[in-house]
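Bug #77: duplicate submission created two jobs. Keeping one. Sequence:
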Amino acid sequence: CACAGALAFALAARAQELGALCDASGLDQGAEVMDMTIAEIQSEVDLQAVENDDGTCRGFTSNHAAARKLVRTSGVVTAVGGVKDSYSPQFFWIQDGSDPYSGIEVFDEAHFENVAEGDRVTVTGVAHETEGLTLLDACEVAVESSGNPLPEPVVLTTDLFDAGSCQQESEQYEGMLVKFEGVEVLPCINRFNGDEYPHCQAGLLPSDETTWDKYKQMWVSNAEGSILEVDNHIMSIYTSYVATVGTQYDSLTGVMTWSPYTFAWELIPRSEADVEGPAIPLDAFPDVPLAEMIPLGDDPYTNDWGTVPAELLGSAVVSNGTQGTGCGGEWEEGSCPTRDVMTSEAFDGKGCRRHNICACYPPAYYDASNGLQGAGVSFMRVRGVVAAAQDPQGSFFIEDPECGPGSGIYNYRVGGTTLQDGDEVELIARTYVYYGLPELADHLDIKVTGQGTPCEPRPVDACPFSPGTGCNAEAHQWVGTKVVLDGPLTVVSVGQDAEGLMDCSGWTDSTGAGLDGGCFVVEDANGCQMVVDNLFKSMDRLFEGAEGAPTLEPGLELASISGFVHPRRGSWEGQGGYYALVPPSEESVVPGSA
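Kept job's structure:
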C-alpha cells in the first residue's frame, strides 16, 4: 500500500495533467464530447493480465474505447468519499443499472459535499487506465436529480476476486455495488501478505490475533482458499464490529475497486448498513486512569508492553562500518540517532524513519515493536474532561479532573462526536506514538457523560523543556497537560530556526493564505528556553501583526504564556525533537512585564 506522501504526489501530478486535458479539450469553446454509457466506457479491447515477478497479479492492460478521450456519461452515485490508500476523499462511484460493466470510479477534487448517494449525475471527463484501474477524471459534474434508488448489489463469491490472481471475469464488476454472503474474517498474516508482513496492527485486546493493518485494510473470505481485501476508509468495520480471526458476518456489501498500490481487488463498505455482523461489546475493554496513561519508569524507552527496537535506539551491531544496523551513521547504543543520521539518505532508504523511533516514555499498552510503526496492543476505556479542542470535531486534549502531573493526553481524530471545552467524556481508543508524541487514536466510541471544569494551568519553568535537553521525566510528566510559563519571558527568535531543527506548525494570514514558520522561542530569567507552537492556529494574528496584537519579534516581553506541552517530532537531542508549548487561544499569550 502506498504511503500518503507518495500517493499525494501521484494525485497532484494527475490533477495537473487532468487540468491540461480539460483545458485543451476546450469545454468552454464547445469542444467535441463523446456521449457514452458507462458500459461503453468500460468495454475492453485486447484485455491482458500483467503479473509481478513472483507471478502474482499486477492488474490488467487494455484498450478502452474512450481511453484518453473526453467523454460524457451518467449514473447514480453509489458511494462518496473514498479515502483510498490513506489519502483524502476525492473519489466517488456511479452506476447505471446492475448489468456487468455498469459502474465506474470517478476522481474529482471538487466533488466532496457536492454529491451524495442517490444523486443522478452527468460527468464529463477523461477516461483512462491506471495500473489496472479504469478511472474517469472529472472535468465537470452536474447533479440532475437526488434521492434516486440505488442499484441492487450483485451477490458474488470472494474467489472471483482472490488477492494475487488475475481473472478477467472480475473486471466486469469494477466500480459496481457488490455483496458477499457468509463471510469469515482472516488473519493479517496470510497467503497474500506473506509471513513477514510488517504493517499488521493489534486487535481490540492483547489476546487477539491481528486482522487489519496500519493502512486500514483487512481480509475476508466466503470461498475456501480465497482472500478478498477490504478497505476501511469510508466506513471502519473493525471499530464498530467484532473483527477477530474467524468472525462470521452474514454479509458484507460495498463498491468494488482495484488498488494500484496493493495490486488487489478491494471491497469498500460505505456505512453500517453494509455490514451484517456482531457489534463490538463496549464493556470488554480495560479501564485506564489518565494518571496511569504515561508511566515514567527508569528506562524512558520501555514499558510493560514493549521496548523500542534496538535499531531505532542504536545498537552494538555493525553494518557497513557504522553502528546501528546501517541506518545512516553512528549513534550511541541505547540512545537516539543524531540529526546527521536522521537526515541522511541511508536513514530514509533503509526504512529507519518510523513513527515509533525514540518513543520517549511510551504510554499504556503501547508496544513500539507492534507493526513497523508500533501501536497499542489493546483498546481501552479512558475518562476525562476536554481541556481544549482544535475544532468541535477535530483533535483534542483531555485531562484528569484531579489535575495532577501526568494526567493529560492528546487525542488524534478526524471527524466524529462534537466536543467543547469542559465536556466530561468516556472514550474507547488505543495509544499511539507519533515521533515522540503520545496520543489516543482510532476511537471506537466517544460519549459525553456530563459537564466538568477544565484544569487551571499548572506553573512550570522552561528548563526541562529547553531544546536539546532530550527525553526527560521532569518534562514528560506534563505532556498533554495545560501549564503556564510565568515571566519575565523574552522572545528570542520567530519562525523556523536556521538549522532546520524545529518542526513548526504553519499560520494563516487575513487573506486565507497559509504560511510556514508558526512558532517562536521564548527565554525565561534563568536563561532557559521553550518553543511555542501554533498547532491550534490560535496565534495567527500575532504572526501577522494584526491591529491590536503585539508585534511578534525578538525582544518582545511577555508576562506569561499558557498552553499544552506537546512533543514535536520526538523529544531527543540533536535531531530536532523538542517539547513545545501549544497555546489554545490568543489570550493565552499575555504581553508585558511580569
